[in-house]
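User: Sequence for Aste57867_1503 protein below. Tokens please.
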Amino acid sequence: MATTESRERRRRSELLRLRKLRLAKREEHDIMKTELQHLQMELARLQVSPKLRGARSASSSTFAAVERVLQKHNKSLRRQVDDHEALARLLHTWVLSQQPAPEPSTRAPWNHSTLLANAAGRRHGLQWLSDKVYHNAVASMPRAAVFGASVQDAFRFTLHTTPDHDDVAAMETHLQHTFFANVKDVARVIWGCEHPSSPLKTYVVATDELVEQVHDRLIYNHGVYQGTGTDVRRIVSWFEDAHRIVITFTLLTEDECFPVARGQIRTHGFCWVIVERVTHSVSLLRHSVLHFKPVTADGPASLDDIGRMYNLHRGASQPRHAFVEQIRSAAEAAARDRYQTLLANLSQVLDL
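Assistant: Structure tokens for Aste57867_1503 protein:
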């Protein structure tokens, strides 16, 4: 009940903010309209006034100077209005999406948002996408839908297929592990892995570069996945609550500044790491990943493209659904191996 009330309060708050933005835009429009009417009246007066006919040249020059100043001011106001409209659209989409899905959806239309090249829209987009993944992560916690109430170490992999079971729609992975370390120490080690200068890397990315840093807890990285060799652009963000720390990863589909290159396969989706405090020196880690069907410069990757990511090649007479099962087995084995490597690396650092 408290969660529902909290969501409703957030929804009302965002709707109020949108109304304020619209009112501010109307006020700016009214001010500009009033200024224009005043100048038109002044121009008409100067044109018909007998006393000033001899000084038309000077008047025209003065009017032209005033017009240039107003045009410059008008351009500035229009830029502000455009930025406000972009922010309003993002907030409107966020408000409409506040009812969480019971499980990570393999459709995820919000995750297919394009990261804009426009500086203001880009900054808001980086934060909005991270916030969306965070709210999905927190909403999944009370249901404990994956491993129930158990706190035992666990791993689960699911390959989602298309309705005809002859193609890959998404891959979903969940991991649970207990560390005998403080919650902040565990989270800091994981966060540190996301910086290119860190000597410790996660199981995920073989090469990593920092593209943008919005602030200390929101960065944008680019890298290549180990094993599959797929391109990945990740927005990584840190959220700290009273008894847990959540690190989110938004794997972008499209970035106007960095389109998918010819011959490139890009992994996209989202994931999160939730580190919960059990005691001062015991922490429970939950890690969830949802990878959608990869994309290429020409659109979604083919089944053969996905197979090659795992060094698999379909025979001429092999049914598609049989090849999907091959991919399922190879992808699950690769994910299990990478997670074992991840946990071993993290444990080694935390035990130092």
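Helices lie at 2-48, 56-96, 119-140, 183-193, 303-309, 320-350.
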